[in-house]
Every structure is written in C-alpha cells, then in structure tokens.
C-alpha cells in the first residue's frame, strides 16, 4: 500500500514514511492510494479490540512486519485503558454510545495516540532515521494532552504543543501545563485553534526552518490527525462498535447502522468514512457541529466559507473553522483529483472560501447544536437515563435528535462519545442545575461527582495538586521562535 499527497499525485511513499513526515511538503495530506476492502467482516465479531486492530491496521501499514505491528498494538491497548473492552458500547434509550474516553487522558484522542509513539519508533527503525523527531501539535484541548502523555519521555522524540490560551477548558489546560517529561514543551498562544494549526502547518512548509533543524539533527512530525498514523487507528473502533452490536444480537448480519460524530478537524468522521469504504455497513455518517457550523453549511450548500468569527463554546475540541481532514474526503470523492484539491485549497487560503458545484455527499448528514441545546441535552440525558455526557457528545446526541425528526429514520445508531464529562465540569454541572457561580473548577467537579454518584476519574482528581511546569505564552507570529528556543537551535531570519 502506497500513500500519496492530496495535492500532488506523483508522490508515492510507504506508510512508515508517511507517519514520519506527518504532512506532505506540498501542503497536502497523505492518503492511501486505495482504501482496502475487508472481507467477511461479520466473522470478526468474536475478536477482541487488539485482534481487530491488527486486522485493520495491517491493511494500511503494509511495510510494518506483522510481529512488529502486533507488538505496537499490544503495548498501546493495555491497562492504560480503564475498561477491558477499550471502547465499551453503552445502550441508552434508542442509541448506543461508543465510549472512547477510557484512556489515560479521558478523550478519544487516546485511542490513536496510545499507539502513535510505537508506530513512529518502528517507522524510524524501518527507515533507518538517525535524527531526533520533533512532534509539533496544535490543540484545542484534547489532542494536546493525549499527545503529551503518550510521547513524554520517549527516547529520541521531543514534543511541542500549542494551545489557544483562552480556547480550552480549565481542566484541559491544567492537564497540559502540569505535564512532566524532559522532552515536553507546552505553549499557550494568543489566538484561536485555527491560528495554532495554521502556524504549525506554516512551520512544516518552511524549508529554511527544516534545513536548520536538519543541521541540528532534528526532523519534524505531527501528532494531529493530519498525520495518517493518527487516523488509521481510529478506524478500528467503528468496526469494534458495529461488531459489538452484532455480537450482542442488537443487529443482524450486514444490517446498516448510522454513526454520529461530533466533528471539528474532520479526522474522527473521516475514520468512519474509511470504515464504510472498507465495507462496514453504514447508512449515514452524521456530522455534528457546535455553533462553529461551517461543516453543516458545507454539507448542505457545497460552500465552505471561513469568513466568520470563531466562537468559543463549551465543546472546544470542535472550535475550528479550518477542518483539515475535509481535504482528504474531497480528494477521495473527486476521483483523486489533486489539481481540483489544489485549486480549492488555494481559494480557501486566498479568498476565505470555496464552492463545490454538484457536491455529492449523499452518505453524510450535517447539522449543529447551540449552547442552549447542549445544556438541554446534557440535562435531559441525565434526568431521564442517569447517564452523564460531555458537551461534545451532547452536540452529537442533539444533532441525532434533529436528524430523526427531519428524516424519521430509525436505523440503529452509534454515537461517538468522545470525552469524559469531568473534563468540562462547569458546563456539565450547570446543565444539571448545580450552581457553579464563583466556584473553583475542582469544587465544581466534586459536586458533580456527588450529585451524579460517578467517581471522578483519577487522572483528573490527581490534577489539583500537580505543579504547573509550563508557563510559556506567545503570539502566533512567534511560534517558530519558541520552538528554536526549546530545541536550542540558532534562529533564522525569514
Ligand atoms: N479536536 C482537537 C483539534 C485537533 O484535532 P486533531 O484530531 O487533528 O488532533 C483537539 O482536541 O485538539
């Protein structure tokens, strides 16, 4: 299996090379040249998470030896996860929540970031790279901590995380700025997630900077979903969710299901699309947005228009106006037309929008939820079912309710439940009528645990007394300078 760039189809590299590079030099994203089909899917229903992970990942990571890939999988999906199923499926009312937040940092990002360091180390070995790898990461909250946790103290790797100073939850920020590990560097930027992600992409595309790093024995890679090594492991849990339904007798062989994904950078829903293309029986992919409803507009009109204010919401992981992975979807559905992608991405960069005539996204449905609807959904879910959901999952749940009303479709549905509610204490607590005014976040969380009878996850309970180790802050223009400082490499003028 080879990988090419969405912006230049003459590129042809192996999976291990794509994982190391993170993003293509032409600014495009690496995609598999064909999406492999999986045969006899229904026969896989007795497999555990690791076994299934191997079946799926070995289709994509074809230059990894079987035993080496198995090793990566074994080390990734172990007791770091608090549930033996890794991704348990919970039936509440008429939907099934695929709980993806039982990893070490309590967000779905752990599902892929638990394995990425092992894949990267193996990729480095395969390609005989003798440089140190610097992982650049932009985050609106969850990716940053998950990447820090997984790469901390990994030999031969350094990790730099940029987060929007005012665009993450209190707990997400605390998780990041208390991160231990000599190889970790965390920086708050005065800007939003798009600024952080654009800054990181510009740094990737800066040849002079790459040369400077190279001379100093460093190369860059990414822990965001722009890295294909982040995306492929996310396909696994959609198969696992489907096969759990089948195993429990909730669906029949080959019965189609709907999947709802709270969506920001479009990586998680793209993984579901890959699962569908591999043969998983999926009826609709429901793309749920918060008030930053750029994807809803795109799915419904074919116009992607970022000329709008980014709104800070209670679901910060989705506070994004440039959804990077949409580029991959467009590449696939345009018949792999790299020139078309270049034109559209140029339009977006130059004029702030692009339009696609006769856009055919017939498997997708897009809608969004307001902050009020998010609170209402959290409340409703808790009062009716005693089930607590985080604001991102509430966005998805609410959008699914809208979908049912609009279409009367009663297909069985999996909702990707992407984060622990305790990461977003104030919003969740106030939604279930806990008075949060003038209260410290940790006290709010304690009240939340008391009222719901749910134990505070250890990773959050421990945070309160952790020392702040990172107090760096910069303007978006200075991101490169901060990296130079961290790596102690001489600066360049550009
Ligand atoms: N949702 C994000 C933004 C980055 O997304 P990614 O999937 O590309 O890493 C976050 O939590 O940081």
Structural commentary:
The chain has helices at 15-21, 49-60, 66-76, 109-113, 116-126, 142-151, 170-177, 193-204, 207-215, 228-247, 267-278, 294-301, 326-333, 338-351, 371-385, 391-407, 425-431, 441-452, 458-461, 479-487, and strands spanning 3-5, 8-13, 30-32, 89-92, 95-99, 132-138, 157-164, 184-190, 218-222, 257-262, 282-289, 303-305, 353-355, 364-368, 413-417, 472-475. Helices cover 43% and strands 17% of the residues. By secondary structure, it is of the alpha/beta class. It contains 20 helices and 16 strands. It has a domain at 89-103 and 229-462: Rossmann fold (3-Layer(aba) Sandwich). The strands form four sheets. A six-stranded mixed β-sheet has the order 4-5-15-10-11-14, sandwiched between helices. The protein has a five-stranded parallel β-sheet with strand order 9-6-7-8-16, with helices on both faces. A three-stranded antiparallel β-sheet has the order 2-1-3. The radius of gyration is 21 Å and the shape is globular. The longest helix has 20 residues, at 228-247. Strand 1 and strand 2 (8-13) form a beta hairpin. Residues 139-144, 224-225, 264-265, 267, 317 line the site of ligand LJ64HWYM. Residues 2-77 form the Threonine synthase N-terminal domain. Belongs to the threonine synthase family. Residues 91-310 form the Tryptophan synthase beta chain-like PALP domain. Its EC number is 4.2.3.1. The modification N6-(pyridoxal phosphate)lysine is found at residue 109.
């Amino acid at each position: 299996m080879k990988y090419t760039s969405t912006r230049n189809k003459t590129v042809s590299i192996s999976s291990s090379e794509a994982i190391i590079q993170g993003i293509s030099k032409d600014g495009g994203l690496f995609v598999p040249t064909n999406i492999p089909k999986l045969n006899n899917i229904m026969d896989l229903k007795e497999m555990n998470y690791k076994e299934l992970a191997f079946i799926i990942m070995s289709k994509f990571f074809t230059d990894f030896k079987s035993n080496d890939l198995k090793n990566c999988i074994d080390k990734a999906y172990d007791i770091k996860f608090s549930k033996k199923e890794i991704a348990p499926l919970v039936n509440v009312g008429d939907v099934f929540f695929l709980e993806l937040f039982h990893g070490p940092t309590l967000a779905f990002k752990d599902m892929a970031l638990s394995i990425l360091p092992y894949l990267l180390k193996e990729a480095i070995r395969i390609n005989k790279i003798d440089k140190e790898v610097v992982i650049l990461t932009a985050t609106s909250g969850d990716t940053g901590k998950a990447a820090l946790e997984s790469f901390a103290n990994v030999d031969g790797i350094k990790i730099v995380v940029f987060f929007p100073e005012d665009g993450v939850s209190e707990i997400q920020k605390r998780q990041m700025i208390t991160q231990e590990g000599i190889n970790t560097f965390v920086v708050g930027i005065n800007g939003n997630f798009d600024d952080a992600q654009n800054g990181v992409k510009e740094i990737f595309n800066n040849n002079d900077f790459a040369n400077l790093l190279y001379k100093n024995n460093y190369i860059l890679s990414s822990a965001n979903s722009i890295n294909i090594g982040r995306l492929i492991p996310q396909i696994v849990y959609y198969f696992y969710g489907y096969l759990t339904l089948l195993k429990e007798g909730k669906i029949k062989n080959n019965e189609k299901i709907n999947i709802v994904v709270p969506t920001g950078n479009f990586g998680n829903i793209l993984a579901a699309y890959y699962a569908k293309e591999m043969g998983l029986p999926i009826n609709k992919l429901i793309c749920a947005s918060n008030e930053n409803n750029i994807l809803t507009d795109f799915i419904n009109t074919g116009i992607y228009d970022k000329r709008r204010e980014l709104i800070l919401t209670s679901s910060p992981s989705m506070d994004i106006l440039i959804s990077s992975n949409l580029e991959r979807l467009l590449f696939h559905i345009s018949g792999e037309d790299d020139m078309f992608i270049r034109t559209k991405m140029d339009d977006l960069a130059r004029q702030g929008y692009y339009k696609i005539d006769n856009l055919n996204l017939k498997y997708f449905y897009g809608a969004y939820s307001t902050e009020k609807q998010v609170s209402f959904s959290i409340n409703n879910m808790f009062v009716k079912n005693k089930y607590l959901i985080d604001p991102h999952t509430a966005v998805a749940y609410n959008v699914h309710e809208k979908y049912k009303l609009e279409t009367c479709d009663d297909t069985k549905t999996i909702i990707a439940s992407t984060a622990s509610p305790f990461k977003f204490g104030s919003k969740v607590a106030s939604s279930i009528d806990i008075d949060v005014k003038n209260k410290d976040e940790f006290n709010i969380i304690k009240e939340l645990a008391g009222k719901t009878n749910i134990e505070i996850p250890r990773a959050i309970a421990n945070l309160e007394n952790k020392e702040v180790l990172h107090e760096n802050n910069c303007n978006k223009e200075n991101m490169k300078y901060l990296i130079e400082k961290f790596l102690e490499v001489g600066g360049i003028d550009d």
